[in-house]
């Protein structure tokens, strides 16, 4: 005959596991006779169970505390816990009720008369995320979605912030053009000086006044200057 448990198939232990994690199970005796129970685990060094065995009076309940000992390092999120619990229960008669709990279970598990009436209930252990971590995981996509429109608006403002750079570039080209004009004028003056030198040499050879050549050269230089200004 079975007992009623507050947990069905799983015992959940909330992370972080680097601290002592407590869980409880309520065991109910729905019968009109006393029921003895005993808790076993596949990892007795990791868990502390209080009480691990006792007698429940008819129509009564008892709460069992299960404590997972603190681990040195936090297990990875994808690790699967392989620990299990087995809860044994059986109805007891007056002879067994007179015994202590330890002696009674030794008698029940070794005597076929009682052994065949033992009921077993298995529970598997699982690690779950803390409520804070789960809430953070849930709100992260919403926060990212809310930030997306802001990025869009900032992107749309980018051309406006870069427009003055074009004007600055045009302004930078202007001194460059003026420099080219000065260079051209200097070259023109150099050409005129060469003409003066040639005129002096011609006067020496032909005896023709060099002033005429100078006057003609000045007129040509003036015309070249005004053409360059335009």
UniProtKB/TrEMBL annotation:
It comes from the Eukaryota. SUPFAM superfamilies: PapD-like (SSF49354). InterPro entries: Ig-like_fold, MSP_dom, PapD-like_sf, VAP. Its main location: membrane. It is found in: Membrane. GO terms for molecular function: endoplasmic reticulum-autophagosome adaptor activity; endoplasmic reticulum-plasma membrane adaptor activity; phosphatidylinositol binding; phosphatidylserine binding. Residues 1-123 form the MSP domain. Keywords: Membrane, Transmembrane, Transmembrane helix. The keyword Nucleotide-binding does not apply. Pfam families: Motile_Sperm. One of its GO terms (biological process) is endoplasmic reticulum membrane organization. The chain crosses the membrane at residues 207-227. One of its GO terms (cellular component) is plasma membrane. It is a single-pass type IV membrane protein. Belongs to the VAMP-associated protein (VAP) (TC 9.B.17) family. This is MSP domain-containing protein.
């Amino acid at each position: 005959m079975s007992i009623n448990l507050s947990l069905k198939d799983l015992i959940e232990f909330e992370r972080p596991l680097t601290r002592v994690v407590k869980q409880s199970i309520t065991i109910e005796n729905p019968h009109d006779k006393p029921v003895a129970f005993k808790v076993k685990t596949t990892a007795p060094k990791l868990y502390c169970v209080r009480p691990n065995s006792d007698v429940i009076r008819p129509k009564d309940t008892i709460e069992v505390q299960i404590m997972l000992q603190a681990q040195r390092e936090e297990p990875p999120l994808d690790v699967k816990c392989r620990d299990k619990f087995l809860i044994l229960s059986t109805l007891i008669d007056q002879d067994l009720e007179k015994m202590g709990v330890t002696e009674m279970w030794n008698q029940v598990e070794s005597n076929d008369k009682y052994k065949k009436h033992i009921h077993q209930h298995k529970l598997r252990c699982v690690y779950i995320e803390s409520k804070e971590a789960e809430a953070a995981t849930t709100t992260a996509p919403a926060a990212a979605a809310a930030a997306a429109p802001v990025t869009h608006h900032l992107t749309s403002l980018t051309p406006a912030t870069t427009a003055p750079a074009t004007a600055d570039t045009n302004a930078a080209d202007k001194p460059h053009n003026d420099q080219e004009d000065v260079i051209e004028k200097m070259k023109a003056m150099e050409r005129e000086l060469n003409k003066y030198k040639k005129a002096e040499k011609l006067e020496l050879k032909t005896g023709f006044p060099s002033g005429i050549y100078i006057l003609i050269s000045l007129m040509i230089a003036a015309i070249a200057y005004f053409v360059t200004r335009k």
